[in-house]
Write a structure and sequence with these properties.
The complex is a heterodimer of chains A (275) and B (112).
Chain A lengths: L1 H24 L6 H21 L1 H10 L1 H38 L10 H28 L4 H27 L3 H29 L22 H10 L7 H21 L4 H5 L3
Helix pairs in contact in A: 1-5, 1-6, 1-7, 1-8, 2-5, 3-4, 4-5, 4-7, 4-9, 7-8, 7-9
Chain B lengths: L1 H21 L3 E9 L2 E3 L2 E4 L4 E8 L5 E5 L4 E5 L4 E6 L5 E7 L7 E6 L1
Parallel strand pairs in B: 1-4, 3-9
Antiparallel strand pairs in B: 1-2, 4-7, 5-6, 5-8, 8-9
The chains are: A mainly alpha (275), B alpha+beta (112).
């Protein structure tokens, strides 16, 4: 049961952290719980479908179908987050002012939530499909169903608790800075996802690594420790990054920051107009 | 203007190096999973060369090939086979394991 709980926890953790950041970033949008909930639901369904078709996906593209699939959905999520981040750079200040005036979490403004739904679905699908395969393998290997179900429940609860902890922590940020922080956090999540996509494409030999393991900080902070995994999900931490992962991380971050600066300028004319 | 050319030149070098890397000769090595164990448990591979690692799973359940040292993680479906590219590696030992059956599925890649 402990092994099951640990593995499920590890898979749920990363998805839960990303869902928390996205949920926080959608603060003040009417019906955000329904939207994000739909994203989680879509992700769980997707995870089941992906797990069921693991054989087909694996043998596709001469044995590297998994990598191509993972990289594709990660890059889709990066585009969605990028869109949202750039949009928010222009509207975040306005939103924060409005929310302060009418009280936090009162419905204000419309934001492109479909994008965030997809990001949540991708995060849940990716981590979930591995958990589903593992649980199925355990059941087929003759693990007791009660102990298996117990392990799954403990793992999910633990991961969700970590996500809620992060969310509650984010809520403590003063409203004035709230969207700035969530926006930068989303930017780092996106850069990390892009770097992870690059990692998959190196593993598939479709991208050059530009140096395997440019540095190795695994002795100092392992990818597989709780903190290492948390940082992996939130800022793309990798203890042994390939050169191209660093390059893709930087390029993504720089492009998003440029986008925020170029298109995300607050609308001055609106602010100056009386009333 | 000058540093723009330098950037372009650098990009060119990185690109050429990258393409060279992709087309470098790769060695092939095969691992088989039977009864939640890797066979062979110790696999010798050439150092300094990209390795195309084929992992075949003869079991009726999925396994996840994972190695911290190689920075690789990949699901191997039941009765399926996948390809994982690793390296080029420095000489040394690179342990790996099956994340779904950690007690039994253990092995090491030895780069020489």
């Amino acid at each position: 049961m402990l092994a099951t709980a640990l593995l499920v926890f590890r898979e749920v953790l990363e998805a839960a952290l990303i869902v928390s950041v996205v949920y926080a970033a959608a603060r003040g949008v009417p019906g955000r719980t329904r939207w994000i909930g739909s994203g989680v639901g879509t992700g769980v369904l997707g995870a089941l479908v992906v797990a069921a078709s693991a054989g087909v996906i694996a043998s596709a593209v001469s044995g590297v179908g998994q990598e191509v699939f993972s990289a594709s959905i990660l890059l889709a999520a990066v585009v969605m987050i990028g869109w949202h981040v750039i949009w928010m750079a222009g509207h975040g200040r306005e939103l924060a002012v409005q929310m302060k005036a009418v009280g936090a979490d009162v419905a204000v403004g419309r934001r492109p939530l479909t994008l965030l739904l997809i990001v949540v679905a991708v995060a849940v699908l990716r981590e979930g499909s591995e958990a589903v395969l593992f649980v199925y393998a355990q059941a087929a290997n003759g693990s007791g169903l009660a102990s298996l179900a117990g392990g799954v429940a403990v793992g999910i609860l633990g991961g969700v608790a970590m996500g809620m902890g992060l969310y509650l922590g984010l809520l403590r940020i003063p409203m004035k800075h709230f969207f700035t922080v969530t926006n930068w956090l989303l930017l780092l999540v996106a850069a990390g996802m892009a770097a992870q996509a690059a990692h998959f494409l190196v593993q598939a030999n479709l991208l050059p690594s530009l140096g395997e393991g440019v540095w190795d900080t695994s002795g100092w902070l392992s990818d597989h420790s709780l903190l290492g995994q948390t940082l992996h999900a939130l800022v793309g931490y990798d203890a042994r990054p390939a050169g191209i992962q660093l390059a893709v991380y930087l390029v993504t971050a720089v492009l998003l920051i440029l986008g925020m600066k170029l298109w995300g300028k607050p609308n001055r004319t609106k602010q100056q107009s009386p009333g | 203007m000058n540093h723009r050319w330098a950037t372009l030149l650098l990009a060119g070098f990185v690109g050429a190096y990258g393409i060279g890397q992709l087309h470098a000769e790769e060695a092939t090595a095969t691992l088989t999973i039977v009864n939640h164990r890797f066979e062979p448990a110790e696999l010798a591979v050439p150092a300094g060369q990209k390795i195309k690692l084929i992992v075949e799973n003869k079991d009726a359940t999925a396994e996840e090939f994972e190695s911290y040292e190689l920075n690789r993680e990949k699901v191997v479906p039941a009765k399926g086979s996948v390809v994982i590219f690793v390296g080029p590696l420095k000489p040394g030992r690179y342990p790996f394991f099956g994340d779904f059956n950690k007690e039994t599925a253990k092995g090491v890649l030895v780069a020489k």
